[in-house]
Design brief:
By secondary structure, the chain is mainly alpha-helical. 78% of the residues lie in helices and 0% in strands. It has helices at residues 3-26, 43-48, 52-84, 88-103, 106-124, 130-155, 160-166, 171-200, 203-208, 216-224, 230-261. The radius of gyration is 22 Å and the shape is globular.
């Protein structure tokens, strides 16, 4: 890489990550000042874990993310299996339709889901809360699972399923013992990506949440409208670390899968 390219990359990374590093540093600040570092302390982290509103929202967010990610992984994997066995033209059409929620602005998705839930709430006594949040998260999580699983089907030998059946496996057994291990890295990557997106989603959750069930981003937003507490810095730091760990795990899985398939190249 040329020197100018390295400088440009450094500037981009600086622009992206300096605000996060400043937030992390001031999460350990003794005072509430956001401009002067007075001294090191862990007091804001201790206060964070004693804040019932934040902890309640965090637990609710994790439960919603886990439930939505599991359901999305199952639905997305089944959808990927069906799409993989389609003919070329229908497959391309379905993939474009599947990718629309990814391209679609979140505010459009959030408002449309809110109107849909309002329609059903008037007829089925559906209340905004945990159920609507889970359904909304599943809606935007499924396409990411399909996006991660489909390449694994494309890398897999197309005759491996029939070969397993020729050797005496039933269709279910052939899928469980032969196909599923081949696509498992994509399934895990899809689950981790779904969990990450559910964890930090704000726009869709804002329109589909209720007074009885709110996610952490909504709680943080309501707190920042009054005054930003250093507890928010501490919480954001923990969330950032959690997301980084998830991304590292995802990259490790993908790297091992690429090495196994012989498509991994150093430096890429």
């Amino acid at each position: 890489m040329k020197k100018s390219g390295k400088i440009y990359l450094a500037l981009v990374l600086l622009f992206l990550y300096v605000p996060i590093f400043v937030l992390i540093v001031f999460s350990f600040n003794e005072t509430k000042s956001r401009s002067v570092f007075s001294g090191f302390t862990l007091d804001w982290y201790r206060r964070l874990f004693h804040n019932r509103i934040i902890i309640s929202s965090l637990v609710n967010t994790i439960i919603i993310a886990v439930v939505a990610s599991i359901v999305s992984t199952v639905l997305g994997t089944l959808a990927a299996i069906g799409i993989h066995h389609m003919k070329k033209v229908p497959k391309a059409i379905v993939m474009n339709i599947t990718n629309m929620p990814i391209i679609n602005p979140e505010i459009v998705t959030g408002v449309s889901l809110m109107l849909l839930f309002v329609f059903f709430s008037a007829r089925m006594n559906l209340e905004f809360g945990f159920v609507t949040l889970v359904i909304a998260h599943i809606t935007f999580d499924v396409p990411y699972v399909i996006l991660n699983v489909m390449p694994k089907f494309n890398q897999m030998n197309p005759h491996i399923f029939e070969a397993a059946q020729d050797l005496g496996c039933s269709p279910v057994s052939a899928f469980r013992k032969v196909v599923l291990p081949e696509i498992m890295p994509g399934v895990i990557s899809g689950f981790l990506m779904s969990f990450t997106y559910s964890l930090d989603d704000f726009v869709v959750s804002y329109f589909t949440s209720g007074s009885t069930s709110q996610t952490l981003p909504i709680t943080i937003y309501s707190m920042t409208r009054r005054k930003v507490s250093p507890e928010i810095n501490a919480l954001s730091t923990l969330i950032f670390i959690a997301v980084v760990i998830i991304l590292i795990v995802k990259n490790i899985i993908e790297t091992k899968s690429a090495k196994k398939n012989g498509t991994y190249r150093e430096g890429i």
